[in-house]
Specification:
Blueprint: H1 5-25, E1 32-34, E2 41-49, E3 53-56, H2 64-76, E4 80-83, H3 90-101, E5 109-111, H4 116-125, E6 131-135, H5 138-148, E7 155-159, E8 164-168, H6 174-186, E9 196-202, H7 206-218, H8 238-253, E10 257-260, E11 275-278, E12 295-301, H9 304-312, E13 319-323, H10 327-336, E14 341-344, E15 362-363, E16 376-384
Helix pairs in contact: 1-2, 4-5, 6-7
Length: about 375
């Protein structure tokens, strides 16, 4: 992947956190009794394992993504087939080796990698899986649903791409917003589904915010290794570099101004400068595409009505961020933003917090107790009373 050392440690602890969390969370699940209105029967809702799950994983967090699926599947009593990305399969292979070394029951956890035609399509079209789950792009999710629905009715849990707005008002704690915005963009080199994609900044603080982001990016150390302690590593592959270059070139051609960065680095590895680009057109095509790279697109706004229209003008709906000291403003955006997650004046992610989107950003959730629902059948058992 090319993660920084700290990023690799985060990925590693994510899987252990998931396994520990779900091993405890499943013990809190109990049968649910439903009162009979006529007093003639007793009713219980019992939970049972759904069956075999197939999990398609994205490359950006090889262990975190795996943990998000493995934890609830095993806790619910489901066997699972893990299909890691061909760009970063080694972490999943090691998990498979560990399962073998500890004599984990064969067939409960299976790791398989390969291309779509040889592996992906057969897994989807098989009648054996009861659940198709994934972390990846919306386009991939659509293909998986199409392929898998040809042979049987399956359940789906899919966390798809995002296009997160990052809204900063004139009364916001500007230093806080800059620090968080910059950190979310250089973290994992911007290859995070919840990374802010579109920075909507109030006109009165536009200059100060832009200068603050440029300063942060200028001071970001780029590299790889434990000793050098870089703040940002490389992109995953050449395709990622090419995509970022294409998006920026198109944005500049349509009037965007690069304030800082904008270039791949001339050194071994797929390194790209953290980039700030200013846009005056709120309908620019770059604002409709998930960049998945260290690029902050900055767009000015004047009113909350204006910016809510900008923010919701996307088919994606995963994460969103708002910075303001006005409680009415925060409540307004909590109600109006069409996203599965609304973060106000900060950012918090953890295994016990539900993570999921609306619109084309997916169905179901990862993390939290709610993820278990995707792997469990709710069965009604009714018994007549004598």
């Amino acid at each position: 992947m090319g993660k920084t050392w700290e990023g690799s440690e985060e990925d590693l602890t994510s899987i252990t956190n998931s396994l520990e969390y779900y091993s405890k969370e499943i013990t809190k699940r109990h049968d649910i009794e439903i009162e009979d209105k006529d007093g003639t029967h007793e009713h219980h809702i019992v939970s049972q394992p759904l069956g075999v799950a197939v999990a398609f994983l994205a490359y950006n967090f090889p262990l975190l993504n795996l943990g998000f699926k493995l934890g609830p599947a095993l806790a619910a009593g489901c066997s699972i087939i893990l299909k890691p990305s061909e760009f970063s399969p080694l972490s999943a292979y090691i998990i498979g080796e560990i399962c073998h070394e500890i004599n984990f029951p064969k067939g409960v956890v299976t790791v398989i990698c390969g291309d779509v035609s040889d592996v992906g399509i057969p897994l989807c079209e098989s009648k054996i899986p009861r659940l198709i789950t994934m972390i990846g792009s919306t386009e991939t999710a659509q293909k998986l649903i199409e392929q898998s629905s040809k042979t049987s009715i399956k359940r789906y849990s899919m966390e798809c791409g995002g296009n997160a707005p990052f809204i900063v008002f004139d009364d916001a704690d500007l230093e806080l917003a800059i620090n968080i915005g910059a950190a979310l963009k250089v973290g994992n080199t911007g290859q995070i589904c919840v990374a802010p994609n579109r920075f909507y900044i109030h006109t009165s603080v536009l200059k100060e915010f832009t200068e603050g982001m440029v300063k942060k990016f200028k001071n970001t150390t780029i590299g790889f290794g434990k000793e050098k302690k870089p703040g940002m590593g490389p992109l995953t592959n050449k395709q990622s570099v090419t995509k970022v270059e294409r998006i920026l070139k198109q944005a500049v051609a349509e009037g965007g101004k690069i304030e800082f960065g904008g270039n791949a680095l001339d050194q071994p590895g797929y390194y790209f400068e953290p980039t700030v680009i200013s846009l005056n057109n709120p309908k620019a095509p770059i604002l409709q595409e998930e960049i998945f790279g260290p690029v902050a697109t900055i767009v000015p706004f004047s009113t909350k009505e204006e910016v809510i229209e900008y923010a919701n003008n996307t088919n994606a709906g995963l994460a969103s961020y708002v910075f303001s000291k006005n409680e009415e403003t925060l409540q307004y955006f909590s109600d109006k933003l069409e996203f599965g997650e609304v973060q106000l004046n900060g950012v918090k992610y953890d295994i016990y917090l539900p993570h999921g989107g609306v619109k084309n950003s997916g169905i179901g959730v990862d993390c939290s107790t709610y993820a278990l629902d995707d792997y469990l059948i709710k069965k009604r058992v009714t018994k007549a009373l004598n």
